[in-house]
Design goal:
Layout: H1 2-21, H2 23-28, H3 55-64, E1 72-76, H4 82-91, E2 94-99, H5 102-114, E3 121-125, E4 138-141, H6 145-158, E5 164-168, E6 179-183, E7 186-192, E8 199-205, E9 210-218, E10 221-226, E11 233-240, E12 243-250, E13 253-263, E14 266-269, E15 272-278
Parallel strand pairs: 1-2, 1-4, 2-3, 4-5
Antiparallel strand pairs: 5-7, 6-7, 8-9, 8-15, 9-10, 11-12, 12-13, 13-14, 14-15
Helix pairs in contact: 3-4
The structure holds S-adenosylmethionine.
């Protein structure tokens, strides 16, 4: 045992030492004796280990996300591709999965072929931190909490409002899930990507009334107030993807309900339109 250990350590050290010498030295010194041994493959640097999601958890993740044939599902750190293969087989969804470990991509492609869904899903060797996610209508994750948190700003920026995220095991930082479930002692977290509505909005009612509404946003939660007007309260403010709704209430007038669709810098609603005049709401 101790001999084996000693050999292992000395091999590791000499390899590291050789590498640290750099290419120039290696070129100018005789190389090691040629053998038929294959060079050891470089192990990828994993940010999360390979632990596949059990099939019953995969099934529930896809149910929670209400996958349909119109969805494009992405799995960052896809392992053997089971989430995407199931999404394609059961619901007809298309998708793309990435993994930094080439072994996993070989397995994922083989699994897709065996399931007859290679025309729907594909897989690539990529570092998930560099994979664009804007095309995903659903993003599947089984990573560490700190990775989810690192990815959150990109989810909010790159993914379209209304697209969904389903995560096995861990939530996404301070973002409160829209739904949660538990299968076989495993947590599943579900999120809908909210539109960005933070800021001041000039609201024009069809009747001619114009006022400025300040909206303060934390993920899908919004609060706000009318700028420069006392005694009006914003009630029941809700944001679900691109759908926004709120009510304005004054002590002596009937409450007014608003609902509309956010599209970048405008909100089109029943009886009103709104234009964002500043991305920062005065607080
Ligand atoms: C916990 S497994 C999840 C596998 C699969 N998503 C599932 O749920 O069955 C995490 C996967 O992330 C991959 N991974 C780790 N770091 C990565 C990185 N930086 N880029 C891409 N994939 C990575 C691992 O190789 C592993 O397959």
């Amino acid at each position: 045992m101790s001999t084996l250990k000693t050999i292992g350590i000395s091999t590791a050290i000499s390899r590291r030492a050789l590498l640290s010498l750099g290419g120039a030295v290696l070129l100018s010194t005789p190389g090691p004796a040629q053998t038929n041994d294959k060079p050891a493959e470089k192990e990828p640097n994993l940010d999360a280990p390979y632990v596949p999601t059990p099939q019953d958890v995969v099934d529930r993740m896809l149910e929670l996300a209400k996958i349909t044939g119109d969805d494009f599902v992405m799995d960052l750190g896809c392992g053997d591709g089971r989430i995407l293969v199931t999404a394609a087989q059961k619901f007809g969804a298309r998708g793309f999965g990435v993994d930094i470990d080439p072994k996993r991509i070989v397995e994922a492609k083989a699994n897709a072929a065996a399931a007859g869904v290679s025309d729907k899903v594909d897989f690539g060797i990529e570092d998930l931190f560099h994979t664009p996610i804007g095309k995903a209508s659903v993003l599947a994750l089984y990573l560490f909490p700190h990775i989810n948190e690192l990815l959150a700003p990109r989810m909010l920026k790159e993914m379209k409002p209304g697209s969904r995220i389903v995560s096995h095991g861990f939530g996404i930082g301070k973002w409160r899930p829209d739904k949660e479930d538990m299968v076989a002692m495993r947590h599943i977290y579900f999120y809908v990507v909210p539109a960005n509505v933070e800021g001041s909005w000039r609201i024009k009612e069809d009747g001619g009334l114009i006022y400025t509404l300040a909206l303060i946003q934390s993920f899908q939660r919004i609060t706000g107030y009318l700028e420069g007007v006392d005694g009006v309260r914003l009630r029941n403010a809700r944001l679900a993807g691109a759908e926004i709704a709120f009510a304005l209430e004054t002590p002596n007038a009937p409450r007014k309900d608003f609902s509309g669709i956010v599209d970048g810098e405008t909100i089109s609603g029943k009886g009103f339109t709104a234009t964002r005049v500043s991305k920062f709401a005065p607080r």
